[in-house]
């Protein structure tokens, strides 16, 4: 299922961090700088804004390291056990909800520190944001909206296979065949998501423009940003919300089917990876020097 901009950032960062246990600690320790430059790429912070944003990002990671990483480690400990067992669609969906709750918590904690910087955004910076969205949309079209349905399906199969192999290692021929069938049967609609994506981008720009041009308190700014994030998580458009639920249900069922097809060796590999990541998260959480 496609996710919002904020959620994509966090999920993408987690995938990067988990790419190898030896790289996880290095990547996490560098994450404050990486996050600042990611944000800067969207709005091009001024000399006055930059120190405040850097300070907010560093403070957020200190909170995240001490309070969230132990929770992630505990979650991975649970995953390590369950990955060796048969899992139902309901269990898969529960894991999806667990991850969503943690993303929500992370974003909610970031909003208060960034509210002041949001109110200081200029018209030029908002135009920069719009251009960044346009560039991202061109990338999305190249990756998801190929000229033929066959090309789109092949690209999606490749993406889903890479995600599966990220955890379980190389898939065999039978697993790849079932994966391709599942992708073909999926209700995922790249064009529908693209239309929703552009509406959300417009909502972001309009909200930030209002917050940066109208007299508004810090509490009102935070409330508006939280509402904006909620609209990105759950669309205000009923038809799209219904689509999101259909897609989530399908993805949970499909993931459970693919897990059922995994071999004992693949499950042991996934469990080993979870254990290594769990240990790294505990080690990072214990490092209070940063």
Give the tags.
mainly alpha; 84% helix; disordered N terminus; 290 residues
Short précis:
With 290 residues, the chain is mainly α. Helix content is 84%, strand content 0%. The protein has helices spanning 5-17, 21-43, 49-82, 89-119, 123-144, 149-168, 173-185, 190-213, 218-233, 238-261, 264-286.
Strand content: under 5%
Number of strands: 0
Task: Determine the fraction of residues in helical runs and give it as a percent range.
Answer: over 70%
Radius of gyration: 20 Å
Structural category: mainly alpha
The major pleated sheet works out as: none
Shape: globular
Distance between the termini: 35 Å
On the 0 to 100 scale, the average pLDDT is: 91
H/E element sequence: HHHHHHHHHHH
Instruction: List unreliable stretches of 5+ residues.
Output: 1-13, 15-20
**Helix segment tally:** 11
